[in-house]
Fold:
Amino acid sequence: MQKREALKKRTTFETDIEIYILLDGKRQIELDLPIPFFPHLLKSMAFYADWDLNIKARGDVEVDFHHLVEDIGIVLGEAFRTALGETKNIQRYSTQFIAMDEALSMVSIDVGGRSFLNYDVSIGSQKVGDFEADLIEEFLRAFTNHAHITLHGKSWWGKNGHHILESLFKALGKAFKEALILNGNTIPSTKGII
Structure:
C-alpha cells in the first residue's frame, strides 16, 4: 500500500505555511504556530485521527489571527486531499459524538468529494482565552472546501467554550479515523465512482 501522506506549502504576503500529514500515522504531532489555543484543537484532532501532523506557520498575527487560521485550513485541506489519493477503497462516512464534561459535540463527515460545511456551534463568550472562537468556522470552511469533504459539526450543549470546541475537534478526529479505514476495493457509492 502506498503511503497516504503529503507535504504542502503556501506563501502569501500575509502567511507562510508548511504542512506535512500522514493519514496512517503514529500520532507524531509537531505544531509551530503563534496562535493561542488553536494548536491544542489541531493536536486533539490529529491525535484521535491517528495522524502524523507537522505544521509550521507564520503570519500577520499583529493584525489578528484570521489570515493564519484560514490559510492553515486551506493548506491542511490541500494536504489531506493529496494524501488521501484515490477514494475508492475507504469507509467514506462517519458520525461521532464526544462528551467533555458538560459539553457534547457531534461531527458527521462524508469524504466523498463534495465540499460543504454545516456549522452549528454556539459559544457564549466570543473568546477562549485570547482566541476568537468564530475563527473555527472560518478554518473548517477553508478546510472542507480544499479537502472536498462534507462536514456537519454541532454542539448539542455546553457552557465552557474550551470544552465545546475541544469535544468538537476530538469528534472530528475520531470521524476521520473511521471514514478513512481502508475497505478492500469496494467503491462506497451507488454511482460506482466518487
User: Anything to note?
Assistant: The longest strand covers residues 15-22. The mean pLDDT is 93.
